[in-house]
Each structure stands twice: as structure tokens, then as C-alpha cells.
Design brief:
Length: 131
Amino acid sequence: MEIRKKINPTLFDLCLGILIWGILCQIVILIFSRTPAYSIGLWIGIVLGIAGAIHMWWTLDRSLDMISKGATKTVGTQSIIRYIVLVVVMALLAVSGIANPLFAFLGYMGMKAAAYMQPFTRKISTKIFKI
């Protein structure tokens, strides 16, 4: 069983970048504030970001095997589902007070930061997988 055939390298880079983003943000939170709601919100956002990245990869991988019209519909539908899940989770966080929704959004935005960190995470993943 070879791990390279099980994990998409680009998806791995993106998830690794999201985790690095989460660690960096957590360090800043620990320096400036010890409020648990901030950390909880951040890591809820990180989990949402990784789940969103995996869902995007799954959607794109599946839609590449479809005809153009079906692929467009699938990608659009799955994007709406992803955004609805994000809005529902943020609303639950805002209403419940369990975690800070702004920090959850900061964690979710780790997907954006991870895209910019891709050259750095690619170097790490090539060392891990020896590609």
C-alpha cells in the first residue's frame, strides 16, 4: 500500500497549510489573549476549512468525469451546500456563545492562506512522500 496513491498531493498541501495557519494563529492568540472561546472558535474554523477543502477536491474530482452541463450544476450545487454549512455553523456559534465566530471565520480563511503557502508546503510534502 503506497500512501501517494491514497492522498492527492495538492489536497495534502492545502490541508497542511491550513494546519500551519491554525498553529500560527493559535500562537498569536496565546500571546495576546488566553480566552478559550477564541481558541475554540479558531479550531472549529480550521476543521471547517479542512472539511471544505476536502469537499471541494471531492466535488471537482467527481465533476471532471461528467459532461459540461452536469458538471456545472454539480459544482454549483456543492458550493451552495458548502456555504450553507458554513453559515449554519457560524450562526450556531454566534447564538450559543460556545466559541467566537470571528475566530472561526479566521480559521476558515486558512484555506486562503494555505493557497499562498503552497510553495512552502509543497517542499514539506515532497520530503514526507519523497515524490
